[in-house]
Amino acid sequence: MTRLCPKCRTPSLHPLSADRAPSLEGALPPPSICEKCRGVWLPHEAIRDGLVPAALHVEDVATPVAADADERAGLCAAGHGIMRRARVDVGAHPLHLDRCGTCLGIWFDAGEWATIAASQWLRHLDDLWDPVFRKRLRDATARDHHLETLRQALGDATFDKVVTVAEALREHPMKSVALAYLLDETRTHAPE
Ligand SMILES: [Zn+2]
Ligand SMILES: [Zn+2]
Question: How far is the CA of 8 from the centre of ligand 1 (A)?
Answer without folding.
Answer: 4
